Amino acid sequence: MADDHTLIDYVFKKVEDNENVDTIIKGLFERIGAEFSFQHISIKEVISSSSRAIKCTYEWNEDGSTSLLNLEKRFEDREFLDIKLLYENENAKFKVFVFFESSPDMPKGLMTNGIKSLLRVPLIKEGNFCGYIDFVDKNDDRRMFIADEIKTLKSVSMMIMMYLFPVRELEQVNSETRELSEFDSLTHLLKYEYVYDNLQNIVNSGFDGSRLDFISIDFSNFKFINEKYGYVSGNNILYEIAQYIYSVSDNIIACCRPYSDNFYTVIKIDENMELDHIRRKVEYAANELIENIRKRFFDCNIIVNCGIYSMKHGDTDIEKALFNANLARKFAKHENIVNCCRCKVYTSEMSVIMDRQADFVSSMKKGLSDKEFYFQLQPICTTDTKNVISAEALVRWRKNNEIVEPLEFLSIFEENGCIINLDYFIYDKVFAYVADRLKKNKSIVPISLNVSIMHFYSLELLDFIDNLMDKYEVDPDYIEFEVSERIYISDFIGVKDVIEGLKKRGFRVFIDGFGSGYSSLNTLTKFDIDGIMLDRKFMKNKLEYKDKIVISCIVEMANKLNLQVFCEGVETEEQRKFLIKNDCPYIQGNLFCPPVDIEEFEKLIDAEGI
Questions:
Q1: Chain-centre distance of CA 67, in angstroms?
Q2: Superfamily of domain 4-174
Q3: Which of 436, 431, 448, 444 is nearest to 483 (CA)?
Q4: Between 461-472 and 492-504, two packed helices, what is the crossing angle to 10 degrees?
Q5: CA 565/CA 572 separation, integer angstroms
Q6: For the chain, domain boundaries
Q7: What angle (nearest 5°) sits at the alpha carbon of residue 260, between those of residues 258 and 266?
Q8: What residues pair up with 512 in beta bridges, in sequence order?
Q9: Residue segments in the chain with a per-residue pLDDT below the cut of 50
Q10: Residues 570-610: pLDDT tens digits?
Q11: Buried-exposed string 1-26: b where 16+ CB fall within 10 A, e elsewhere
Q12: Where are the alpha helices (DSSP H) in 89-230?
């Protein structure tokens, strides 16, 4: 069932899409009616205290009919005052009333309309009664509204009263002024389509001796502001951003907000100006902007992502310029952060990479059917004796008889969700492999599978694992799961549910890449995990003094928490000896064995007689 957050997100999305309030409320009522099984919803608003009139301003009926109730109701002075006092005496709190057909307090005039149950939620503004919303059930004689339903419908009432109605007033004011329709009501910037037309006129007329630099901007973690401080604060910040962008340079000839927290700005400058100089100026301005925001929202972690593309004299393709600026911005998100900003200048190599990535995505399905994907195994062994205790399954892709490096395709598949099907393919192959080895009474060790962050959005992982267990009858002792450390900051509830589900089925779960930059030590106590995989970044050729302190402290802490500790990326004998000295029991790395094909791995474990 839809909750208040879902409905609020729906409304704000519709407002951003510039739909009018009447249409939004109609769509909102349709969704509520379907989700909560109402047959009628209506809004009654106070026209004015002096006229003692309440008017039905919005009405939705399941069957599409209208005028189920009187459109306008006029009351006697005493009766109207009683209605107001009924709510205002509650100190502007949302007192919700539930009426039933058989109840003596059912409002007059409603009983003849086939209403069985009625939930009435007031519209309150600044402590004053402004009307109410009726949610009608004509089927259930005495419907029991649960607390979550009432909470959600209260939120709907507040959103309509405090947000949609003010927007409606603004619509009414602006409806007769065509000029205002050309501007974004939130930022007061000219809308994208008008900016586009103006830019087209500029490039068509030529700009000899100058160039146009297109800058694409968005903000990572902006959602934090909306969720913690509210959408009003978020909208105010977007307005401030728009004003700030225009204030930082006299060379800006266009600026707009095409959607959400995305902005385009275009500057006209001397064609000999170094692009690196522009990039540094953009970074400086972005950092100054975020510093100003953090003075009021000190705990926010907003990051500015910028992409720059230069259009030189003679070029007229604005779509291409915007596309390339966007492409540079997407590449910037993989760069190191400079204070609060990531900025990248477009290069032709980006288009080549993007084309290659698009080819990866389009050819993945065929690759799965043609069995181009397979897995290798990298052993995990004891630090002191180098005995193999388990292995990690690592996906590989042989495309057109060429090996594609995992770093090239895994992040791409994760971004667009393809990783789920690829993981399922590998999971199936690993389960089948383990089942086959067990059936033939051959040597086998537990095989660990990597869990992508996307599985915590699809919510199908546990069902898929159940099917594999039924299909192959593999004991959970032979399968382990490695959950990427960065997952723990994405969806706390979803992560916990999946980990608990895997543990209940008998699987062991480890945090992979621990210490790579996302972790909170707090996660070690909040999740029921079996161990940690210390990230390979700690294993440098020459271990520095500070590295040794961090590693030894993490290992000691994990041991005290009764967590198994594995160290990835061990390449030298010096590293192994250090880990032995500091009680790290298990290692993985090329010092012992790199990832190998199944046949090579089997020779290894068969030789050990596992």
A1: 42
A2: GAF domain (3.30.450.40)
A3: 448
A4: 20
A5: 18
A6: 4-174, 182-346, 356-535+594-608
A7: 35
A8: 484
A9: 68-70, 91-92, 111, 491
A10: 999 999 999 999 999 999 999 999 999 999 999 988 886 66
A11: eeebeebbeebbebbeeeeebeebbb
A12: 147-159, 165-174, 192-205, 223-229
